[in-house]
């Protein structure tokens, strides 16, 4: 019995030693030049659409238990990174409630024609979300342009955490959910141009999504949603 107890205790100790605290970087991540975009205690590093610093507060974006949270019907507005990114890898954990429809946008840019836009990694409750009728509106899609590969998706239900990853290198872009690639596309390719032409972004100039770089955005779509472990590195 004593031997069994010691074995179990060692197992717990090893697990604790290798578990990573939320909103931190490991030595390996730091060496690979990852940068935290959320420190777990404030909205530092995020700005509003007008460029002003985000002030986390009730009724807007809040910092709750190490997450940056938008509660149902809060009026937080879309918030953006201060920096722009071209070739990059981005990762974040999200947790939604049943019916939530939101997203994370990248390559956010003010277009000559079309205004302020970004490519959206759609985050939605695929079953009960209000905008779940089209394949390119489902979780993991490039919203309204390209659908995810549904057979690849392994998504935890609302109320549980999921991890997304966006990798952009040159013209190639990948969407990942929980460690599995669910979408890959090439900006400016024939298939890409055809898909954009069928989308709500067909009149945008220059061609939607073909800009060299842009900011990353957390979307205010009336929540509720929680994010943590938000990080990025330039490639």
Describe the protein in words.
The protein has 235 residues and is mainly beta. It has one domain (25-234): Exo-inulinase, domain 1 (Jelly Rolls), CATH 2.60.120. It has three helices and 13 strands, in the order ααβββββββββββαββ. It has helices at 2-18, 27-31, 190-197, and strands spanning 35-36, 46-47, 61-64, 67-70, 79-81, 88-96, 101-111, 115-124, 162-169, 172-177, 180-186, 215-218, 225-234. The strands form two sheets. Strands 1, 3, 4, 6, 9, 10, 11 and 13 form an eight-stranded antiparallel β-sheet that branches. The protein has a five-stranded antiparallel β-sheet with strand order 2-5-12-7-8, with no helix packed on it. β3 (61-64) and β4 form a beta hairpin. The model is unreliable at 4-10 and 12-17 (pLDDT under 50).
